[in-house]
Structures are given as C-alpha cells and as structure tokens.
Design goal:
Layout (H helix, E strand, L loop, with lengths): L14 H29 L5 H7 L6 H5 L6 E11 L5 E2 L2 E17 L8 E10 L4 E3 L4 E4 L18 E5 L6 E7 L2 E4 L2 H4 L5 E11 L3 E11 L2 E5 L7 E4 L2 H44 L3
Parallel strand pairs: 6-12
Antiparallel strand pairs: 1-5, 1-11, 2-3, 3-4, 3-10, 5-6, 7-8, 8-9, 11-12, 11-13
Length: 287
Amino acid sequence: MRYSFWTGRPRNVSRREYNAYAAMAFGAVATGGLAFLLALSAAIGMPTWTAQSLARLESMSVQAAANYRGDRRDLVKLQGYLITDHPPRMPDQASLRVIRGKLNVQIKETQTSQAPLRETLWQWEQSAQPIDLSDGKHQVRLGFDFAALPLPEAPPETLPQIHRDGVGRFAKPIEVEYGGRHFPLDPNKWGKASSVSTEVERQVLPYGQAVVIVAGLESTPKGSQLVDPLGDRLQVLVGTEAEIRQNGERTRILFGGLSVPMALASAVLGRSARRRYQRLVEISNQT
C-alpha cells in the first residue's frame, strides 16, 4: 500500500473511506477481545468466585453471635437483615425507610460552547445509628465503620420537572420541582440558559435489607458486636448467600452465552475489514 506523505493516508483514498476501514478494524479487534474475555471469565468461573470464597468460611447464626461470650474471634460469617431503632426516611420518598441513603439533585446547562453551568439543588446523606444484624428474633450490633456498608444505586420513581417561563425555544427555566419540593432558579444565573437538564444521584440501602457479613466478633459489657477484622477482610454483601451463589451462576452462563455472538460479530467485521483493506490497496497503487 502506498501512503501519501502529506495526509498520512493511502494515496487516492479519501478520509471517509479510510475512517470507515479503521472503524471496522477497530470493531473487529474490540468485539473479539471482549468475546475472549467473556469466554475466559465463564470458563474459569470468575462470576462465582465470591460465592466460592464465602462457602469456604464457617457460618455462625445471629443467635450464636448475639449470645457469644469469650475471646475475640478473628473471622465469622453471618447472614441476616439490617435493622435499626430509628431508621431515616428518604426525603424524596417518605414511605421508604433506609439504613443508609444518599440523594444529590443537580441542574446543568447543555448545548453550550462555553463552560456549562451546574448547580446542586438538593443534597442529602444520612446513616442510621446504631445498626444491628437480625434474624427476626435475635440481633447483634455492628461495631465497624458504616462506610463499609454497600450503597446500591436506586433510580428515582419520578424525574424532576423543570418549570419554564415563556413558550418554545425562548422559554427560560425558572424552577425545578422534585420530591414534593420546589427549587427556584436564580434568574441572573439561569436566565440566559436555553437548554438545561436535571441529574439525580440516588443511592439506597433499605431497612431490612438481607446481607451476608464477614467480620470479626468480640464480646463487650454491652453485648457482642461485629468488628473490622485484621487484614482488610471485612465484607458486607447484599443478598443471602444462596442469592449470591445463584446470581454468580446466572452471570457465568450469561457471559458464556454472550461470548458466542460477540465472536461472530468480530469475525464478520474482520472479514469486511479485510475486503475493504484489499480495496484500499488497489486504489492506493493506481497511478
């Protein structure tokens, strides 16, 4: 293939033709690499590693942990439900009690050539205190940093509404309504913004969430509690151990199934890229 010194592309080949070939070649490599990784992950059982690791640990019931008296145990595995005496409620959904919750509502300017405007309208984060692991009858106190508790994403039930003044493309945003609250916008800041959108970051660990906890156990004058074990081995996993195992198996099967169409797509793209490359060679060698 003969290349042009000035353009860096094959001679007599347009930028559009060369970009089309490059996109096909990249797509073939990317889908092929992804197919290989998915197949490898399924073959070695990577999605099930967490469940396998949990299965190797000896289980202890919540009742046994609550009644434990003795020297500190370095590592125990328990499963139960997270509860608290005074659970906070999500401010945008008062019926939802939580162990931990986080909410961040923002408005931002879009379609602008300058630095886009962005403003936080509502920011809230709260964690229950104290927190216990319960089996329904017995409970043991969590004595480690609550930041170790997972905080899964939870999409809002309804999206924020932007109220505008005016009609059509001349309408200006004046207020955002979300979760039963109204947030007036500063006209000096947002009066010239013709295109805006909202963004909601919402994370929730609900009251009563089933979890598996791998932690240390120690006895105190006020009762036993789960503590952070040595060696950075603290784990708090959402779901029961059976659910974690089932999810791992389903993910493994999914990865194996997805690797097949990804490999076929890579083969099709690779064949098309080779044909297009041969065409570029013929064009570039023309005098």
